[in-house]
Design goal:
322 residues; alpha/beta; five-stranded mixed sheet; 36% helix; binds zinc ion
Protein backbone atom coordinates (compact mmCIF):
# COMPACT_ATOMS: atom_id res chain seq x y z
CA UNK A 1 0.00 0.00 0.00
CA UNK A 2 1.43 3.36 -1.02
CA UNK A 3 -1.39 5.74 -0.19
CA UNK A 4 -3.61 6.60 2.69
CA UNK A 5 -7.08 5.19 2.77
CA UNK A 6 -7.76 5.18 6.50
CA UNK A 7 -9.21 2.14 8.18
CA UNK A 8 -10.19 -0.64 5.80
CA UNK A 9 -12.15 -3.79 6.64
CA UNK A 10 -10.18 -7.03 6.63
CA UNK A 11 -11.78 -7.86 3.28
CA UNK A 12 -13.16 -5.44 0.68
CA UNK A 13 -14.45 -6.76 -2.63
CA UNK A 14 -14.52 -4.69 -5.80
CA UNK A 15 -15.93 -5.73 -9.18
CA UNK A 16 -15.40 -3.82 -12.42
CA UNK A 17 -18.03 -4.71 -15.02
CA UNK A 18 -16.74 -4.30 -18.56
CA UNK A 19 -18.29 -5.05 -21.93
CA UNK A 20 -16.55 -8.43 -22.17
CA UNK A 21 -15.63 -9.40 -18.61
CA UNK A 22 -16.38 -8.70 -14.96
CA UNK A 23 -13.12 -8.42 -13.02
CA UNK A 24 -13.21 -8.85 -9.25
CA UNK A 25 -10.55 -8.22 -6.61
CA UNK A 26 -10.32 -8.63 -2.86
CA UNK A 27 -8.31 -6.13 -0.82
CA UNK A 28 -7.00 -6.79 2.67
CA UNK A 29 -6.98 -4.21 5.46
CA UNK A 30 -3.74 -2.72 4.08
CA UNK A 31 -5.24 -2.10 0.65
CA UNK A 32 -3.21 -4.88 -0.95
CA UNK A 33 -4.84 -7.01 -3.67
CA UNK A 34 -5.01 -10.53 -2.22
CA UNK A 35 -7.27 -12.21 -4.78
CA UNK A 36 -8.39 -11.62 -8.34
CA UNK A 37 -11.01 -13.41 -10.45
CA UNK A 38 -12.90 -12.74 -13.63
CA UNK A 39 -16.01 -14.01 -15.42
CA UNK A 40 -17.35 -13.33 -18.91
CA UNK A 41 -19.98 -10.58 -19.00
CA UNK A 42 -23.32 -12.13 -20.08
CA UNK A 43 -24.40 -10.80 -23.46
CA UNK A 44 -27.56 -10.68 -25.53
CA UNK A 45 -31.24 -10.37 -24.69
CA UNK A 46 -32.14 -11.15 -21.09
CA UNK A 47 -28.51 -10.87 -19.96
CA UNK A 48 -29.18 -8.65 -16.93
CA UNK A 49 -30.48 -11.43 -14.66
CA UNK A 50 -27.39 -13.53 -15.47
CA UNK A 51 -25.21 -10.45 -14.83
CA UNK A 52 -26.65 -10.17 -11.31
CA UNK A 53 -25.86 -13.89 -10.87
CA UNK A 54 -22.26 -13.26 -11.98
CA UNK A 55 -21.82 -10.38 -9.52
CA UNK A 56 -23.23 -12.38 -6.61
CA UNK A 57 -21.13 -15.41 -7.52
CA UNK A 58 -17.92 -13.37 -7.89
CA UNK A 59 -18.49 -11.57 -4.58
CA UNK A 60 -19.04 -14.83 -2.70
CA UNK A 61 -16.12 -16.53 -4.40
CA UNK A 62 -13.83 -13.66 -3.34
CA UNK A 63 -14.94 -13.96 0.29
CA UNK A 64 -17.65 -11.30 0.57
CA UNK A 65 -18.35 -10.41 4.18
CA UNK A 66 -20.30 -7.16 3.91
CA UNK A 67 -18.10 -4.79 1.87
CA UNK A 68 -18.72 -4.74 -1.88
CA UNK A 69 -18.42 -2.02 -4.49
CA UNK A 70 -19.31 -2.46 -8.16
CA UNK A 71 -18.09 -0.27 -11.03
CA UNK A 72 -20.31 -0.14 -14.11
CA UNK A 73 -19.60 1.31 -17.58
CA UNK A 74 -22.32 3.91 -17.93
CA UNK A 75 -24.49 6.56 -16.36
CA UNK A 76 -25.41 5.35 -12.88
CA UNK A 77 -27.43 7.17 -10.24
CA UNK A 78 -26.39 7.54 -6.62
CA UNK A 79 -29.07 4.93 -5.81
CA UNK A 80 -27.30 2.31 -7.91
CA UNK A 81 -29.61 2.46 -10.94
CA UNK A 82 -27.75 2.06 -14.23
CA UNK A 83 -29.59 4.41 -16.60
CA UNK A 84 -27.58 3.77 -19.77
CA UNK A 85 -24.58 1.64 -20.73
CA UNK A 86 -23.63 1.50 -24.42
CA UNK A 87 -21.39 -1.56 -23.95
CA UNK A 88 -23.90 -3.72 -22.06
CA UNK A 89 -26.95 -5.29 -23.71
CA UNK A 90 -30.48 -4.23 -22.80
CA UNK A 91 -29.68 -1.73 -20.05
CA UNK A 92 -32.43 0.78 -19.24
CA UNK A 93 -32.95 1.75 -15.62
CA UNK A 94 -31.28 -1.44 -14.42
CA UNK A 95 -31.48 -1.53 -10.61
CA UNK A 96 -28.22 -3.40 -10.21
CA UNK A 97 -27.55 -2.05 -6.71
CA UNK A 98 -30.87 -3.17 -5.26
CA UNK A 99 -30.87 -6.55 -6.99
CA UNK A 100 -27.37 -7.52 -5.84
CA UNK A 101 -27.95 -6.14 -2.32
CA UNK A 102 -31.09 -8.27 -1.95
CA UNK A 103 -29.27 -11.41 -3.02
CA UNK A 104 -26.34 -10.80 -0.69
CA UNK A 105 -28.49 -9.56 2.20
CA UNK A 106 -26.28 -6.49 2.60
CA UNK A 107 -26.02 -2.97 1.17
CA UNK A 108 -23.50 -2.51 -1.61
CA UNK A 109 -22.08 0.51 -3.45
CA UNK A 110 -22.38 1.04 -7.22
CA UNK A 111 -20.60 3.74 -9.16
CA UNK A 112 -19.36 4.63 -12.61
CA UNK A 113 -16.24 2.68 -13.58
CA UNK A 114 -14.16 5.81 -14.26
CA UNK A 115 -15.15 7.21 -10.86
CA UNK A 116 -13.94 3.92 -9.34
CA UNK A 117 -10.61 4.24 -11.16
CA UNK A 118 -10.36 7.79 -9.83
CA UNK A 119 -10.79 6.53 -6.28
CA UNK A 120 -8.05 3.91 -6.81
CA UNK A 121 -5.54 6.51 -8.06
CA UNK A 122 -6.54 9.01 -5.38
CA UNK A 123 -6.34 6.64 -2.42
CA UNK A 124 -3.73 4.06 -3.44
CA UNK A 125 -2.13 5.33 -6.64
CA UNK A 126 -0.44 8.20 -8.43
CA UNK A 127 -2.50 10.91 -6.67
CA UNK A 128 -2.18 9.55 -3.12
CA UNK A 129 -1.87 12.44 -0.68
CA UNK A 130 -3.64 15.04 -2.84
CA UNK A 131 -7.07 16.57 -2.14
CA UNK A 132 -7.72 18.02 -5.62
CA UNK A 133 -7.08 15.66 -8.50
CA UNK A 134 -8.59 14.61 -11.77
CA UNK A 135 -8.32 11.30 -13.58
CA UNK A 136 -8.56 11.35 -17.36
CA UNK A 137 -8.68 7.95 -19.07
CA UNK A 138 -7.40 7.95 -22.63
CA UNK A 139 -8.80 4.81 -24.25
CA UNK A 140 -11.12 4.27 -27.19
CA UNK A 141 -12.90 7.34 -25.81
CA UNK A 142 -12.17 9.57 -22.83
CA UNK A 143 -13.63 9.12 -19.36
CA UNK A 144 -12.70 10.55 -16.03
CA UNK A 145 -13.42 11.47 -12.49
CA UNK A 146 -12.61 14.14 -9.99
CA UNK A 147 -11.80 14.72 -6.34
CA UNK A 148 -12.24 18.28 -5.05
CA UNK A 149 -11.27 19.35 -1.55
CA UNK A 150 -10.96 15.73 -0.48
CA UNK A 151 -14.35 14.51 -1.74
CA UNK A 152 -15.28 12.53 -4.85
CA UNK A 153 -17.47 14.69 -7.11
CA UNK A 154 -20.38 13.05 -8.89
CA UNK A 155 -22.76 15.92 -9.65
CA UNK A 156 -26.53 16.04 -9.27
CA UNK A 157 -27.29 12.86 -11.25
CA UNK A 158 -24.04 11.03 -10.69
CA UNK A 159 -23.02 11.80 -14.29
CA UNK A 160 -20.03 14.09 -13.64
CA UNK A 161 -16.71 13.28 -15.26
CA UNK A 162 -17.77 12.88 -18.90
CA UNK A 163 -14.84 15.03 -19.95
CA UNK A 164 -14.54 13.34 -23.34
CA UNK A 165 -17.66 15.09 -24.59
CA UNK A 166 -16.43 18.63 -24.02
CA UNK A 167 -16.72 20.17 -27.46
CA UNK A 168 -13.36 21.56 -28.56
CA UNK A 169 -14.25 22.14 -32.24
CA UNK A 170 -17.92 22.79 -33.10
CA UNK A 171 -17.37 21.83 -36.76
CA UNK A 172 -15.16 18.86 -35.96
CA UNK A 173 -15.78 15.15 -36.65
CA UNK A 174 -19.10 13.69 -35.62
CA UNK A 175 -19.18 11.91 -32.26
CA UNK A 176 -21.35 8.88 -31.32
CA UNK A 177 -22.99 11.20 -28.74
CA UNK A 178 -24.63 13.03 -31.66
CA UNK A 179 -22.59 16.21 -31.59
CA UNK A 180 -19.42 17.34 -33.37
CA UNK A 181 -15.86 17.95 -32.31
CA UNK A 182 -15.91 16.38 -28.84
CA UNK A 183 -12.51 16.22 -27.11
CA UNK A 184 -12.42 12.42 -27.40
CA UNK A 185 -12.60 12.63 -31.21
CA UNK A 186 -9.02 14.02 -31.01
CA UNK A 187 -7.36 13.06 -27.74
CA UNK A 188 -8.28 9.35 -27.36
CA UNK A 189 -6.85 6.22 -28.98
CA UNK A 190 -9.32 6.61 -31.86
CA UNK A 191 -8.38 10.30 -32.02
CA UNK A 192 -4.72 9.42 -32.45
CA UNK A 193 -5.63 7.08 -35.31
CA UNK A 194 -7.73 9.82 -36.95
CA UNK A 195 -4.89 12.36 -36.69
CA UNK A 196 -2.55 9.80 -38.21
CA UNK A 197 -4.92 8.96 -41.09
CA UNK A 198 -5.34 12.67 -41.83
CA UNK A 199 -1.59 13.07 -42.00
CA UNK A 200 -1.22 9.90 -44.08
CA UNK A 201 -3.82 10.87 -46.68
CA UNK A 202 -1.89 14.14 -47.05
CA UNK A 203 0.93 11.95 -48.38
CA UNK A 204 2.91 12.24 -45.18
CA UNK A 205 3.73 9.42 -42.75
CA UNK A 206 5.19 7.12 -45.41
CA UNK A 207 6.96 4.90 -42.85
CA UNK A 208 3.76 4.57 -40.81
CA UNK A 209 1.66 3.74 -43.87
CA UNK A 210 4.17 1.02 -44.79
CA UNK A 211 3.75 -0.49 -41.33
CA UNK A 212 -0.03 -0.48 -41.84
CA UNK A 213 0.30 -2.46 -45.09
CA UNK A 214 0.27 0.40 -47.59
CA UNK A 215 -3.25 1.88 -47.24
CA UNK A 216 -3.49 5.17 -45.28
CA UNK A 217 -7.01 4.19 -44.16
CA UNK A 218 -5.58 1.19 -42.28
CA UNK A 219 -3.28 3.33 -40.09
CA UNK A 220 -3.92 2.83 -36.39
CA UNK A 221 -2.41 4.32 -33.26
CA UNK A 222 -0.08 1.39 -32.70
CA UNK A 223 1.55 1.93 -36.12
CA UNK A 224 2.29 5.54 -35.16
CA UNK A 225 3.65 4.47 -31.76
CA UNK A 226 5.94 1.86 -33.28
CA UNK A 227 7.33 4.28 -35.88
CA UNK A 228 7.77 7.02 -33.26
CA UNK A 229 9.76 4.61 -31.08
CA UNK A 230 12.05 4.07 -34.08
CA UNK A 231 12.56 7.82 -34.25
CA UNK A 232 10.51 8.49 -37.40
CA UNK A 233 10.16 12.31 -37.41
CA UNK A 234 6.74 12.31 -39.14
CA UNK A 235 5.34 9.89 -36.57
CA UNK A 236 6.80 12.04 -33.80
CA UNK A 237 5.00 15.04 -35.34
CA UNK A 238 1.68 13.19 -35.05
CA UNK A 239 2.45 12.32 -31.41
CA UNK A 240 3.23 16.00 -30.79
CA UNK A 241 -0.07 17.06 -32.39
CA UNK A 242 -1.88 14.45 -30.30
CA UNK A 243 -0.16 15.82 -27.17
CA UNK A 244 -1.46 19.29 -28.03
CA UNK A 245 -5.06 18.01 -28.23
CA UNK A 246 -4.71 16.21 -24.88
CA UNK A 247 -3.20 19.35 -23.33
CA UNK A 248 -5.99 21.55 -24.72
CA UNK A 249 -8.58 19.55 -22.77
CA UNK A 250 -6.41 19.51 -19.64
CA UNK A 251 -6.07 23.31 -19.79
CA UNK A 252 -9.87 23.67 -20.17
CA UNK A 253 -10.39 21.39 -17.17
CA UNK A 254 -7.79 23.37 -15.22
CA UNK A 255 -9.69 26.60 -15.85
CA UNK A 256 -12.89 24.98 -14.61
CA UNK A 257 -11.58 23.05 -11.59
CA UNK A 258 -8.06 24.21 -10.63
CA UNK A 259 -6.72 20.76 -9.69
CA UNK A 260 -3.39 19.96 -8.08
CA UNK A 261 -2.69 17.12 -10.49
CA UNK A 262 -3.96 15.10 -13.43
CA UNK A 263 -3.59 11.35 -13.57
CA UNK A 264 -3.78 9.94 -17.11
CA UNK A 265 -5.03 6.36 -17.39
CA UNK A 266 -6.69 4.12 -19.97
CA UNK A 267 -5.17 2.10 -22.78
CA UNK A 268 -2.80 4.85 -23.95
CA UNK A 269 -1.03 4.75 -20.57
CA UNK A 270 1.00 1.90 -22.08
CA UNK A 271 2.69 4.53 -24.29
CA UNK A 272 3.32 6.98 -21.45
CA UNK A 273 7.02 7.29 -22.38
CA UNK A 274 6.02 8.69 -25.78
CA UNK A 275 3.13 10.93 -24.80
CA UNK A 276 4.06 12.50 -21.49
CA UNK A 277 6.70 14.97 -22.72
CA UNK A 278 4.59 16.50 -25.54
CA UNK A 279 1.50 16.65 -23.31
CA UNK A 280 3.41 18.50 -20.57
CA UNK A 281 5.10 20.83 -23.09
CA UNK A 282 1.77 21.88 -24.65
CA UNK A 283 0.00 22.01 -21.29
CA UNK A 284 2.61 24.49 -20.08
CA UNK A 285 2.00 26.65 -23.17
CA UNK A 286 -1.81 26.51 -22.91
CA UNK A 287 -2.13 26.97 -19.14
CA UNK A 288 -3.97 30.13 -18.16
CA UNK A 289 -2.07 32.50 -15.84
CA UNK A 290 0.89 30.13 -15.32
CA UNK A 291 2.86 32.76 -13.42
CA UNK A 292 0.19 32.80 -10.70
CA UNK A 293 0.13 29.09 -9.89
CA UNK A 294 2.37 26.07 -9.65
CA UNK A 295 1.79 24.06 -12.82
CA UNK A 296 -0.44 21.10 -11.93
CA UNK A 297 1.41 17.81 -12.12
CA UNK A 298 0.58 15.46 -14.99
CA UNK A 299 1.44 11.80 -14.41
CA UNK A 300 0.33 8.48 -15.78
CA UNK A 301 -1.75 6.13 -13.64
CA UNK A 302 -0.21 3.63 -11.25
CA UNK A 303 -3.02 1.12 -11.57
CA UNK A 304 -3.46 -0.49 -14.95
CA UNK A 305 -6.39 -2.76 -15.75
CA UNK A 306 -7.14 -3.30 -12.04
CA UNK A 307 -7.95 0.38 -11.35
CA UNK A 308 -11.73 0.07 -11.65
CA UNK A 309 -11.99 -3.01 -9.44
CA UNK A 310 -9.60 -1.66 -6.77
CA UNK A 311 -11.47 1.65 -6.63
CA UNK A 312 -14.82 -0.17 -6.45
CA UNK A 313 -13.51 -2.12 -3.46
CA UNK A 314 -12.65 1.17 -1.71
CA UNK A 315 -16.12 2.73 -2.28
CA UNK A 316 -17.70 1.44 0.95
CA UNK A 317 -14.78 2.89 2.96
CA UNK A 318 -14.50 6.43 1.64
CA UNK A 319 -16.46 9.49 2.64
CA UNK A 320 -19.32 9.96 0.23
CA UNK A 321 -20.79 13.14 -1.12
CA UNK A 322 -24.49 13.02 -0.34
ZN1 LIG B 1 -19.37 13.38 -27.89
Amino acid sequence: MTGSVGALPTRSIGIDVGGTKALGVALDEHGDVVAEEKRPTPRGADSLGPLVDVLVDLARSLGFDGHLGVGVPGLVTRQGVLRAAPNLDGVADFEVGRLVSERLGSDIEVDNDATCATVAEWKLGAAAGTDNMMLVTLGTGIGGGMVANGAVQRGLNGFAGEFGHMVVHPNGPRCPCGRQGCWERYASGSGLAMLAREAATGRRLRAVVRRAGGDPQDVRGEHVQAAARDGDPEALDVIDDFGRWVALGLSNLTNAFDPEMFVLGGGLAAGADLYLAPIIKWYGELLYQPHLRPMPRVEFAKWGPLAGAVGAALLPSIDRVA
